[in-house]
Amino acid sequence: MRNLWIFISRYNAFFLFIIFFIIGIYLTVKNNAYQRSVTLNSSNEIVGTAYERLNVFKRYLNLGMVNDSLAAENARLKTSLLSLTTVDTSKDVKVIDTLTNQQYTYLAAKVVKNSITLRNNVMTINKGSLDGIKAGMAVIAPQRGIVGLVRDVSEHLATIQSLLHKDTRISVSLKKNNALGSLVWGDGNFDIRKALIKEVPNHIKMNVGDSIITSGFGSFPAGILVGRIIKPKVATNDNFLSGELNLFTDFSTLQYVYVVKDKRAEEQKALESLIKPNE
Amino acid sequence: MNSRIIIVNIIRWVLLLFVQVFLLKNMGFYDLSTPFIYVLFLLLLPFGIPNILLYALAFATGLTLDAFYDTMGVHATACIVLSFVRISFISISLNRDAIDDPEPSLSYMGFQWFSLYAFLCVIAHHLVLFFLETFKVTEIGYTLMRCGLSCIFTLLIILLVEFIFYKRTSR
């Protein structure tokens, strides 16, 4: 003990140095945000690496158990695979023909002239009667949203009465409960991104964010997304509800459209013409 | 005699820290070279000072500097390292019993001994200081360059001050 004391006092410069140095480093790390963060980060990294190594080692210990469970799973999968690959010849095979019953076909067309700033907007596309386009056909936008109805047809071109037109009324419905309404544009607002849904029965509840789809009663196939309600109740003078909706179609950037051909349109028209008005 | 040494050292401490904090703190060449002249106080403490008092003074001086530089503990640690180098160098280069000079200044010890002594102490101090300030090994080249350039600057000023207050003694 005495020797130790002599040793320490003889080299007191060094021991005092160690003590003061540790105090200095401690003060530095404790009181300076940057130095503290560096110290913490590097020590965390060291601890993390150690844990990682330990984890690799631990995985080896569990190897036997994991192997057993994998073998069991393999056996189970092989048995189920066997039952799948064995052909059962006693079954009837049914082929579902999707072509003969297909009602709608789509024809892509390029927009060659478009207007969005007028009260009644009309656009022109580069497909005409030679491509089988007839007046009254529905036109939809590539991703989602509707564009309008074919108005006049020449051999190579066709004009489309856009949705942004005072005469365009399209039968739509609320996606959540199929309540019918009609889509109009330009009744008070002339924003090309907004339209109105009118003539919704009064007992239907519309909420912000409800999706509007085509009803399928006009030329449009059912279920095409039209827009989303942003203002559920717009005051009108009749006994029906109105709502304002955001259109999915961006008319200002429209390049290509799809013309919808309805194979049963003629048949439907002929059948319905048998009913005389006021009969 | 003893009280005179104390008074001289107190005046030196106040003057050097004043110059360091209010003048040299604002000086620097492209953030590369910054002189730390206050270490001269630690270099010129008398030979007979006990180690613990030297460490305590170094620590206090460092902490005072830290308060002004807003780097708590960095200067204090550097000063402690300087003190250790000072003690080691003196005990190696000089015979303890034969020392009759009051303090290790240029006037008493001569240019050769003093310049080596100042160089070793200053470089140890600056190395610790800049590495603690950077606290990164990745920027080692830049840190070493800053350290070397600052060392040259500090040594120049120390030698300049020592030559200004040079007293011809009969050795």
Automatic annotation (TrEMBL), chain A:
Domain Rod shape-determining protein MreC beta-barrel core, chain residue ranges per copy: 111-261
Coiled coil (residue ranges): none
Top-level division of the source organism's lineage: Bacteria
Gene Ontology CC, one term: plasma membrane
Residues spanning the membrane: 12-29
Gene3D superfamilies listed in its UniProt record: Rod shape-determining protein MreC, domain 1, Rod shape-determining protein MreC, domain 2
Pfam family, one: MreC
InterPro entries tied to this protein: Cell/Rod_1, Cell/Rod_MreC_2, MreC, MreC_beta-barrel_core
GO BP: regulation of cell shape
Claim: Transit peptide is one of the keywords in the record: no
KW Transmembrane helix (keyword) present: yes
Keywords assigned by UniProt, alphabetized: Cell shape, Membrane, Transmembrane, Transmembrane helix
NCBIfam families: PRK13922.9-3
Protein family per UniProt: Belongs to the MreC family.
PANTHER family: CELL SHAPE-DETERMINING PROTEIN MREC
Official protein name in the record: Cell shape-determining protein MreC
Automatic annotation (TrEMBL), chain B:
Keyword field: Membrane, Transmembrane, Transmembrane helix
Transmembrane segments: 6-24, 36-60, 72-94, 106-131, 143-166
Protein name per its UniProtKB record: Rod shape-determining protein MreD
